[in-house]
Each structure stands twice: as structure tokens, then as C-alpha cells.
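REQUEST ID: PR-0412
SUBMITTED BY: lab tech R.K.
PRIORITY: routine
TASK: structure prediction, single protein chain
INPUT:
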Amino acid sequence: MYKIAGHTMGTPEYTVLEALQLFHDIGLDGAEIVVQDDYRSGLPTRCSEEELKAVKEKAEELGLRIIALTPYNSRFNDLDEAVRQKEEEDLIRCIQYADYLGAEYIRIYGGNYAAGDTDPDEKKWGTLVESMRRLGDEAEKHQVKLVIENHFNTMTVSAKQSIALSMAINHPAVGILYDQANLTFTGQEDYLTAISLQMEKVYYMHVKDLKFKEGNQGFVSSDVSHPKEEERNVVTKIVGEGELKWPEILKKVKECGYDGWLSLEYERRWHPDDIPDASIGMKKSADYLRTIM
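STATUS: complete
OUTPUT:
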């Protein structure tokens, strides 16, 4: 049976330690923790040993696995070497945090590539590939895997792009984070196509749900992490109450050999008016996943 992690994106009202306690109380197996400054339910990008120790000890006390960290660096494809180098340095620190906490995965953005950006000579693509290889080498030293998410405003919006990048990188410590919700609201592949295209390199999965707004005109975002309210073409839902076919998706990935983690990327941080507190909505989502597993 799959193991289920709570994502601290879903717990903006809680500290990290409080979120871990909540995840334990609602019966989850692990945690994915945001790494970003000025977010209550995240670790700072320059984390002290004391902060890391407190989180590690709390997780051990509760019997929770810290399975993944989620930093927000994205400019791994930037042609300005100083910008790219800083992103890599920040990510290397995060790899060290993951090693200390026993986290197996780090969520990665596939570069920064907004709507309207171009790459006619594929220099940005090549820069991203080389950056991921360097970071993959560093991750491998620490027994950590980098998982590049299907995500808007990156060079891996689609499953087709994600597998192409993964194959170009060709590194055992760099794989794909499969997010069918992201593929769906950005108008990319359906789940059968996405799974058939990229499953051989999928190391980790996000689970969330949505419903399209009336008069959906497609999706464009001005930011890589989340869309502004006026840019949204969907409403966030508790898993099982939206449009995604999670029973079929989980059956298909299992048939393809995936037996890894399901991380509940409950998007209350970005869309608090859509969904209730994680103690209610994340619990309902987890309960639903257990019924269909």
C-alpha cells in the first residue's frame, strides 16, 4: 500500500512542529516540508542546526518520516551565471538539510520559463540539463533524489517535456515528480498519456484535486509558484471531491510498478478560501485515498 505524506503547503496556520503533530494525529505516514523564508509552516533557507534538530527529533518522536523538502529555487536555466550559481548553492544547502533529516526527495522546478519566454538556440535547456547533472552529483553523495515537477512556468509543464528533460539529464539521482492536477489545469496530457510517457522516471507523486471554473478560458500565470486569483481557471478541492480520477490514476501507476509515496499537496497556503483547515480537508483527503487504495 502507498504511504501518504502531508505537505506543509497545506498548513499555513501551523508551525512546522505543529504541522508534524497534525500529520501524526490524522494518521499520515510522513511529511513534505517547504523550505522558504517568511513562511510559518516552512524551514528557512538558511536553517540553523537547532531548527533542524528540533524538526528531526519531533518527527522521530511521532514516528513520521520526513520524506521530502520543497524549496522554491527555479532559475537553474538562467543564462546569467551568477544567478544560476546562487540557485545551485541554495539547492546544495537544501540537499544537506535533506541528508540530516533523512528526506529522500527534493522537489525541483524545471527552470524558470514563463509564458512568452523563448529558447530558440536551446541554451536555456542546455543550461538546465548541465545544472541538474551537477546537482544530481551532489544529491547522490547524500543519498537524495531530485524530483522535477510537472509545473507551469517551467521547462517541464508537460509529461512530454518532463521525460525529455529527464532523459537528457540521464542521472540516477534526478527523476520526475508526477502531478496530474498540474497537467490537467494547464491543458496538458490526460492521466493515461502522462503515465505512459513519463512513468519510467517518476520517483514521487503529488496528490490534489480541482474543479474547473465556469467559462474556463485556459491557464496563464505570471508567477512560477502559484497563480494570482484573477489568473486561476480552477477551484481547489478536497481530494475525491474534484474532477481528477484518482482511483483510475492510482490503479494505473501501480500497474506500472509505482509503489512510492503520495504527498497531499493541499493548497491552503495559496487558496485558503477554497478549502478548510488541514485538520478537516487534509484528513478527508487522506481518508479518501485509503478507501480507494
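NOTES: The chain has a mean pLDDT of 96.
REVIEWED BY: pending
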